[in-house]
């Protein structure tokens, strides 16, 4: 069950076996799918589910901070949060339990929560259900949608800083799964580095997990043994890799959240989420009864070209010179133009095939469909 904290209008839970049973029992007794009004009209609560802990120095921490911004913006609402929610049917159980507690807006914040989110949306047409990160390619309920920022744009900028910092011309990238998001990030990082250092190469290691500290430590050690002197990552929890890189006296590029405190000497910069504005706008849209047919249905994307990218660049570390900062700033301005993109052609893959011709600037949906590594990335995609 949900336990309401002593803090006004905020509730938090942690996933356990007992909780899952309670959620299932609670859902069975609820009037699932009742109501015919516009999604979110008369909202009394908002629910957020996270695949990991709220203090992971990464993906889940950023999303949790966004939920707290919603609590601050709407003090009359209950904000229900659930940590460590698996990417399976348990996610649907938790969301249904939140709906039973009055939630009319649900944020399913992990990539693997999509199927559960769409199932819940279909069962509850009066609830706005949004999922973070996926690209929907099929017909879905009108009260469902996805949202995300163009992550690869600030990752490209971080690549510029990394390309200038490396002395070995070997960069490292620890990633979880070979999904379009991670592939685009790795490619953008390499292309950013190569734009200022053509000799730069990005060595990749796959962990097959969003957060496994043991695998992360092994991956970082492997990269360091290969002579990599700048390491970045696409992992939900980032502390293990950052600490290992700092201990080795090498440079770190962060991801998801500002973790510069973990690497006071080696921190270069990073990419981090600032979800507050987007989350509050989604809730406001739903409360006004305008979610159905709004910009948040299907696939909503914002980036440097729209001026609303929730993914921003982290602060620079002490070793980044003013010259490099200016270089990054110029690249940032270029990305916001019609001609600017981490994937402005020509783009060549590892095998030497031109995938994006010279003069072509792919749009955001096209970039999210990239399924190959670009020239300069060392390592193969798992089959």
TrEMBL record:
Gene Ontology cellular component list: plasma membrane
Signal peptide start-end: 1-24
A Pfam family: Bmp
Domain ABC transporter substrate-binding protein PnrA-like: 45-295
Keyword terms of this UniProt record: Signal
Name the UniProt record assigns to this protein: BMP family ABC transporter substrate-binding protein
Gene source species: Actinomadura craniellae
């Amino acid at each position: 069950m949900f336990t309401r904290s002593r803090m006004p209008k905020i509730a938090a839970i942690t996933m356990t076996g007992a909780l899952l049973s309670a959620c299932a029992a609670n859902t069975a007794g609820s009037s699932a799918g009742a109501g015919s009004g516009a999604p979110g009209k008369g909202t009394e609560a908002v629910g957020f589910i996270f695949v990991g802990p709220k203090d992971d120095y990464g993906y889940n921490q950023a999303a949790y901070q966004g939920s707290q911004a919603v609590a601050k913006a709407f003090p009359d609402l209950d904000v229900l949060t659930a940590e460590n929610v698996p990417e399976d049917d348990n996610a649907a159980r938790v969301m249904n339990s939140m709906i039973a507690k009055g939630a009319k807006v649900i944020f399913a914040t992990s990539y693997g929560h999509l199927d559960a989110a769409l199932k819940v949306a279909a069962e509850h047409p009066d609830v706005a259900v949004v999922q973070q990160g996926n690209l929907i390619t099929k017909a879905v309920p009108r009260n469902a949608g996805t949202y995300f920022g163009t992550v690869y744009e600030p990752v490209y900028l971080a690549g510029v800083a990394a390309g200038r910092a490396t002395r070995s011309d070997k960069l490292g990238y620890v990633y979880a799964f070979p999904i379009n998001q991670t592939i685009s990030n790795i490619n953008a990082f390499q292309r950013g580095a190569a734009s200022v250092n053509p000799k730069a190469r990005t060595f990749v290691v796959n962990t097959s997990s969003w957060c496994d500290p043991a695998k992360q430590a092994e991956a970082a050690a492997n990269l360091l043994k290969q002579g990599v002197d700048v390491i970045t990552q696409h992992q939900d929890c980032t502390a293990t890799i950052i600490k290992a890189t700092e201990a080795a006296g090498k440079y770190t590029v962060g991801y998801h959240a500002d973790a510069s405190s973990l690497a006071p000497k080696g921190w270069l910069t990073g990419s981090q989420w600032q979800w507050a504005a987007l989350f509050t706008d989604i809730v406001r849209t739903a409360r006004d009864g305008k979610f159905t047919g709004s910009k948040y249905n299907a696939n909503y994307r914002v980036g440097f070209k729209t001026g609303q990218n929730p993914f921003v660049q982290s602060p620079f570390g002490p070793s980044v010179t003013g010259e490099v900062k200016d270089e990054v700033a110029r690249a940032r301005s270029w990305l916001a133009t019609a001609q600017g993109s981490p994937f402005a052609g020509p783009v060549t893959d590892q095998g030497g095939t031109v995938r994006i011709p010279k003069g072509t600037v792919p749009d955001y949906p096209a970039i999210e469909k990239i399924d190959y590594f670009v020239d300069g990335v060392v390592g193969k995609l798992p089959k």
